[in-house]
Amino acid sequence: MVSTASKTAFLAWYQPYHQRLLRYCSSRAFGVMDAEDLMQEAILATLANWDNIKDHSKLLAYMMGVVNNLVRNHRRRIPFKGKLDEERLAQLESKLGDAEKALEVNILLKAIGQLPKEQAEALQLFTISGFSIRETALIQGVSEGAAKTRISRARKTLRRLLAEDGQRMSIAQRLQIYASILL
Amino acid sequence: MKNKTPLTLSERLADLLKLVPEITFEQVISWVFEAE
Protein backbone atom coordinates (compact mmCIF):
# COMPACT_ATOMS: atom_id res chain seq x y z
CA MET A 1 0.00 0.00 0.00
CA VAL A 2 1.30 3.43 -0.91
CA SER A 3 1.31 5.92 1.99
CA THR A 4 -0.35 9.32 1.78
CA ALA A 5 3.09 10.94 2.07
CA SER A 6 4.34 8.95 -0.94
CA LYS A 7 1.22 9.81 -2.95
CA THR A 8 1.75 13.51 -2.20
CA ALA A 9 5.45 13.32 -3.12
CA PHE A 10 4.61 11.44 -6.31
CA LEU A 11 2.06 14.06 -7.37
CA ALA A 12 4.55 16.88 -6.75
CA TRP A 13 7.07 15.08 -8.98
CA TYR A 14 4.45 14.25 -11.61
CA GLN A 15 2.65 17.58 -11.99
CA PRO A 16 5.19 19.32 -14.31
CA TYR A 17 4.97 16.33 -16.71
CA HIS A 18 1.17 16.12 -16.79
CA GLN A 19 0.46 17.84 -20.13
CA ARG A 20 3.38 16.17 -21.85
CA LEU A 21 2.41 12.71 -20.62
CA LEU A 22 -1.13 13.38 -21.76
CA ARG A 23 0.07 14.22 -25.27
CA TYR A 24 2.36 11.18 -25.34
CA CYS A 25 -0.39 8.81 -24.18
CA SER A 26 -2.79 10.32 -26.68
CA SER A 27 -0.38 9.91 -29.60
CA ARG A 28 0.45 6.32 -28.59
CA ALA A 29 -3.11 5.25 -27.81
CA PHE A 30 -4.99 6.74 -30.70
CA GLY A 31 -7.02 4.05 -32.45
CA VAL A 32 -5.54 1.35 -30.23
CA MET A 33 -7.01 2.00 -26.80
CA ASP A 34 -8.55 4.72 -24.68
CA ALA A 35 -5.95 7.40 -23.86
CA GLU A 36 -7.48 8.04 -20.45
CA ASP A 37 -7.27 4.36 -19.48
CA LEU A 38 -3.67 4.25 -20.70
CA MET A 39 -2.74 7.32 -18.71
CA GLN A 40 -4.43 6.10 -15.54
CA GLU A 41 -2.76 2.69 -15.72
CA ALA A 42 0.67 4.23 -16.36
CA ILE A 43 0.31 6.68 -13.48
CA LEU A 44 -0.84 4.06 -11.01
CA ALA A 45 1.91 1.61 -12.05
CA THR A 46 4.55 4.33 -11.57
CA LEU A 47 3.04 5.32 -8.24
CA ALA A 48 3.18 1.69 -7.08
CA ASN A 49 6.94 1.78 -7.70
CA TRP A 50 7.54 5.25 -6.24
CA ASP A 51 9.12 3.87 -3.05
CA ASN A 52 11.23 1.31 -4.94
CA ILE A 53 12.79 3.66 -7.49
CA LYS A 54 15.00 5.83 -5.30
CA ASP A 55 16.62 7.65 -8.21
CA HIS A 56 13.74 9.82 -9.38
CA SER A 57 15.60 10.84 -12.53
CA LYS A 58 14.82 7.31 -13.75
CA LEU A 59 11.09 7.56 -13.10
CA LEU A 60 10.23 9.32 -16.33
CA ALA A 61 11.87 6.57 -18.39
CA TYR A 62 10.11 4.00 -16.22
CA MET A 63 6.74 5.66 -16.80
CA MET A 64 7.20 5.84 -20.58
CA GLY A 65 8.27 2.18 -20.54
CA VAL A 66 4.99 1.35 -18.80
CA VAL A 67 3.03 3.30 -21.45
CA ASN A 68 4.86 1.53 -24.29
CA ASN A 69 4.30 -1.92 -22.77
CA LEU A 70 0.61 -1.28 -22.19
CA VAL A 71 0.12 -0.15 -25.79
CA ARG A 72 2.09 -3.12 -27.12
CA ASN A 73 0.08 -5.62 -25.03
CA HIS A 74 -3.18 -4.02 -26.04
CA ARG A 75 -2.23 -4.02 -29.71
CA ARG A 76 -1.35 -7.74 -29.53
CA ARG A 77 -4.82 -8.54 -28.28
CA ILE A 78 -6.49 -6.94 -31.32
CA PRO A 79 -7.26 -9.84 -33.69
CA PHE A 80 -7.77 -8.01 -36.99
CA LYS A 81 -5.66 -4.91 -37.64
CA GLY A 82 -7.75 -3.77 -40.63
CA LYS A 83 -10.71 -3.15 -38.34
CA LEU A 84 -8.45 -1.07 -36.11
CA ASP A 85 -7.63 1.18 -39.03
CA GLU A 86 -11.29 1.63 -40.01
CA GLU A 87 -12.20 2.48 -36.43
CA ARG A 88 -9.31 4.91 -36.16
CA LEU A 89 -10.36 6.72 -39.32
CA ALA A 90 -13.95 6.96 -38.07
CA GLN A 91 -12.70 8.31 -34.73
CA LEU A 92 -10.50 10.86 -36.50
CA GLU A 93 -13.40 12.02 -38.64
CA SER A 94 -15.66 12.50 -35.68
CA LYS A 95 -12.99 14.38 -33.70
CA LEU A 96 -11.64 16.57 -36.50
CA GLY A 97 -15.01 17.06 -38.22
CA ASP A 98 -13.39 16.88 -41.65
CA ALA A 99 -13.06 13.68 -43.69
CA GLU A 100 -10.09 14.89 -45.75
CA LYS A 101 -8.13 16.06 -42.72
CA ALA A 102 -8.94 12.78 -40.98
CA LEU A 103 -7.51 10.85 -43.92
CA GLU A 104 -4.35 12.96 -43.94
CA VAL A 105 -3.82 12.55 -40.19
CA ASN A 106 -4.48 8.82 -40.52
CA ILE A 107 -1.77 8.65 -43.17
CA LEU A 108 0.56 10.48 -40.77
CA LEU A 109 -0.22 7.99 -37.97
CA LYS A 110 0.45 5.09 -40.32
CA ALA A 111 3.67 6.69 -41.51
CA ILE A 112 4.81 7.14 -37.86
CA GLY A 113 3.99 3.46 -37.38
CA GLN A 114 6.39 2.62 -40.19
CA LEU A 115 9.36 4.40 -38.63
CA PRO A 116 11.97 2.45 -36.67
CA LYS A 117 10.62 2.17 -33.10
CA GLU A 118 13.25 4.39 -31.48
CA GLN A 119 12.79 7.13 -34.11
CA ALA A 120 9.01 7.09 -33.73
CA GLU A 121 9.37 7.32 -29.95
CA ALA A 122 11.84 10.23 -30.16
CA LEU A 123 9.46 12.09 -32.47
CA GLN A 124 6.48 11.41 -30.20
CA LEU A 125 8.40 12.53 -27.13
CA PHE A 126 9.98 15.70 -28.53
CA THR A 127 7.84 16.95 -31.43
CA ILE A 128 4.39 15.80 -30.33
CA SER A 129 4.57 15.69 -26.52
CA GLY A 130 6.93 18.61 -25.91
CA PHE A 131 9.66 16.93 -23.87
CA SER A 132 13.03 18.63 -24.21
CA ILE A 133 15.93 17.05 -26.07
CA ARG A 134 17.59 16.37 -22.70
CA GLU A 135 14.45 14.63 -21.37
CA THR A 136 13.97 12.70 -24.63
CA ALA A 137 17.58 11.51 -24.42
CA LEU A 138 17.16 10.58 -20.74
CA ILE A 139 13.96 8.62 -21.41
CA GLN A 140 15.57 6.80 -24.34
CA GLY A 141 18.84 6.20 -22.50
CA VAL A 142 20.95 7.79 -25.25
CA SER A 143 23.05 10.94 -25.68
CA GLU A 144 21.38 14.22 -26.62
CA GLY A 145 23.13 14.04 -30.02
CA ALA A 146 21.66 10.60 -30.68
CA ALA A 147 18.17 11.80 -29.70
CA LYS A 148 18.49 14.77 -32.09
CA THR A 149 19.60 12.45 -34.90
CA ARG A 150 16.62 10.15 -34.30
CA ILE A 151 14.18 13.09 -34.45
CA SER A 152 15.75 14.53 -37.56
CA ARG A 153 15.77 11.13 -39.33
CA ALA A 154 12.15 10.57 -38.33
CA ARG A 155 11.08 13.92 -39.77
CA LYS A 156 13.05 13.32 -42.95
CA THR A 157 11.47 9.90 -43.47
CA LEU A 158 8.00 11.25 -42.74
CA ARG A 159 8.45 14.07 -45.24
CA ARG A 160 9.48 11.51 -47.83
CA LEU A 161 6.57 9.20 -47.01
CA LEU A 162 4.18 12.13 -47.11
CA ALA A 163 5.77 13.28 -50.39
CA GLU A 164 6.60 16.66 -48.89
CA ASP A 165 10.29 16.85 -49.70
CA GLY A 166 9.82 18.82 -52.89
CA GLN A 167 11.17 16.03 -55.06
CA ARG A 168 9.43 15.53 -58.33
CA MET A 169 7.93 12.08 -58.47
CA SER A 170 5.76 10.36 -60.99
CA ILE A 171 2.15 9.58 -60.11
CA ALA A 172 3.09 5.89 -60.09
CA GLN A 173 5.85 6.53 -57.52
CA ARG A 174 3.54 8.57 -55.30
CA LEU A 175 0.83 5.92 -55.54
CA GLN A 176 3.36 3.29 -54.55
CA ILE A 177 4.32 5.27 -51.43
CA TYR A 178 0.69 5.89 -50.50
CA ALA A 179 -0.14 2.22 -51.03
CA SER A 180 2.75 1.21 -48.76
CA ILE A 181 1.27 3.41 -46.04
CA LEU A 182 -2.37 2.60 -46.58
CA LEU A 183 -2.24 -1.16 -47.08
CA MET B 1 -12.57 19.00 -59.39
CA LYS B 2 -10.41 21.27 -57.24
CA ASN B 3 -6.91 19.89 -56.76
CA LYS B 4 -6.14 20.47 -53.07
CA THR B 5 -2.55 20.77 -51.80
CA PRO B 6 -1.84 17.97 -49.31
CA LEU B 7 -1.28 19.09 -45.73
CA THR B 8 2.33 19.61 -44.63
CA LEU B 9 3.91 17.49 -41.90
CA SER B 10 3.61 20.41 -39.44
CA GLU B 11 -0.07 20.90 -40.26
CA ARG B 12 -0.76 17.21 -39.76
CA LEU B 13 1.14 17.23 -36.46
CA ALA B 14 -0.90 20.25 -35.35
CA ASP B 15 -4.11 18.36 -36.17
CA LEU B 16 -2.84 15.41 -34.17
CA LEU B 17 -2.57 17.67 -31.12
CA LYS B 18 -6.24 18.59 -31.46
CA LEU B 19 -7.02 14.98 -30.58
CA VAL B 20 -5.47 15.11 -27.11
CA PRO B 21 -8.23 14.49 -24.54
CA GLU B 22 -8.77 16.90 -21.68
CA ILE B 23 -7.63 15.22 -18.51
CA THR B 24 -6.95 17.59 -15.66
CA PHE B 25 -4.34 17.28 -12.94
CA GLU B 26 -7.24 17.23 -10.44
CA GLN B 27 -8.47 14.06 -12.13
CA VAL B 28 -5.03 12.51 -11.63
CA ILE B 29 -5.12 13.48 -7.95
CA SER B 30 -8.41 11.63 -7.58
CA TRP B 31 -7.00 8.52 -9.32
CA VAL B 32 -3.99 8.55 -7.00
CA PHE B 33 -5.96 9.00 -3.80
CA GLU B 34 -8.66 6.51 -4.73
CA ALA B 35 -6.08 3.85 -5.66
CA GLU B 36 -5.16 1.10 -3.24
DSSP strand (E) fraction of chain A?
Answer: under 5%
Largest interface: A-B, 38 and 23 residues
The SSE order of chain A reads HHHHHHHHHH
Report how far the terminal alpha carbons of chain A are from each other.
47 Å
Main structural class of chain B:
mainly alpha
- Helicity range of the residues of chain A? over 70%
The helix fraction of chain B, in percent, is: 40-55%
Shape of chain A: globular
What is the overall pLDDT average of chain A?
A: 87
Shape of chain B: rod-shaped
How many helices of chain B? The count is 2
- Helix-strand makeup class of chain A: mainly alpha
Largest sheet of chain B: none
Terminal residue distance of chain B: 59 Å
SSE succession of chain B: HH
Mean pLDDT across every amino acid position of chain B: 83
User: Stretches of chain A where pLDDT falls below 50 for ≥5 residues?
Assistant: none
Q: For this entry, what is the oligomeric state of its chains?
A: heterodimer
Number of strands of chain B: 0
Number of E-type strands of chain A: 0
Care to give the gist of this entry?
By secondary structure, chain A is an all-alpha fold. Helix content of chain A is 75%, strand content 0%.
Task: Give structural notes.
The complex is a heterodimer of chains A (183) and B (36). Chain A is an all-alpha fold. Helix content of chain A is 75%, strand content 0%. In chain A, helix 2 crosses helix 7 and helix 7 packs antiparallel against helix 8. The longest helix of chain A has 18 residues. Chains A and B meet through helix 1, helix 2, helix 3, helix 5 and helix 6 of A and helix 1 and helix 2 of B.
